[in-house]
Amino acid sequence: MDFGRLITAMVTPFNAVGEIHWEETARLIDYLIVDQKSETLVVSGTTGESPTLSDAEKVQLFEFAVKHAAGRCKIIAGTGSNNTAHSIHLTKEAERVGADGVLLVVPYYNKPSQEGMYRHFEAIAAATSLPVMLYNVPGRTVANLSAATTLRLAQIPNIVATKECASMEQVTLIAAGAPDHFRVYSGDDAAGLPAIAVGAHGIVSVASHVVGAEMKQMIDAFYGGDALRATQIHQKLFPLFKGLFECPQPLPNPVAVKYALTLRGLNVGSVRLPLIPPTEEEQTYIENLLDM
């Protein structure tokens, strides 16, 4: 399974009463594929507000995205949790409705050992024929899937990738030691080009909602041998990469990017509690970011 080099972790559009806005979800999928050059979409990930989506909503999203994308891009379903049995259930549902792969986050809150993490991912992978992308984000899970454990998991045939948000050292170690079928993706827009330079295959992005076409140019420039052009694009986009999470103080994802999308004319709505919309000051900051 080739998920490409630019993957967007898609927001979930909500209507005025906080329900999934299906018409706008269709419009967003089209926009991300056509305008922002996404090669794969992750639905019901953290950016999609997975903690506040019910299982029924998640499965509906998986099925809707698969049908609406209609082969124009791959669909990865966010089915990970800190409950192995629950993750297996959602993964089987994702496979049933036709998803192209699943994203499995490192178990959060219960802080398993490295062996516990290995067995968690091993059990889910064994329960499906779908390609699996691991997701290591210590800042959210308070647990780091080590490079050694990642490389051990990479020996399982249908574990094919990792979305890595730990250190550049860890990206380098995994990329250097991984088997040929296994690919590393940066999960941090600001670290995307540096990660690619040390062996990552691509980026799982939030900023690609609004600058995906430019990010695709950056990636293509690097792989086309024009590192200087790639660097120039990265430097131009860097304030936006950082600013979407710091406006001007740390702002939880996807609060800023949802507001940025509304400025681009996409009616994706607000966020569900416990997240809250940006303040007037934060809105002005985001508006200025997009004008840069």
UniProtKB/TrEMBL annotation:
The active site is at Y135 (proton donor/acceptor), K163 (schiff-base intermediate with substrate). It holds the Pfam family DHDPS. The keyword Amino-acid biosynthesis applies. Pyruvate binds at T47, V204. Keywords: Amino-acid biosynthesis, Cytoplasm, Diaminopimelate biosynthesis, Lyase, Lysine biosynthesis, Schiff base. The keyword Lyase applies. It comes from the Bacteria. Its main location: cytoplasm. The record marks T46, Y109 as: Part of a proton relay during catalysis. CDD domains: DHDPS. It is an enzyme of class 4 (lyase). SUPFAM superfamilies: Aldolase (SSF51569). It catalyses: L-aspartate 4-semialdehyde + pyruvate = (2S,4S)-4-hydroxy-2,3,4,5-tetrahydrodipicolinate + H2O + H(+). Pathway: Amino-acid biosynthesis; L-lysine biosynthesis via DAP pathway; (S)-tetrahydrodipicolinate from L-aspartate: step 3/4. HAMAP family: DapA (MF_00418). Belongs to the DapA family. Homotetramer; dimer of dimers. Catalyzes the condensation of (S)-aspartate-beta-semialdehyde [(S)-ASA] and pyruvate to 4-hydroxy-tetrahydrodipicolinate (HTPA). This is 4-hydroxy-tetrahydrodipicolinate synthase.
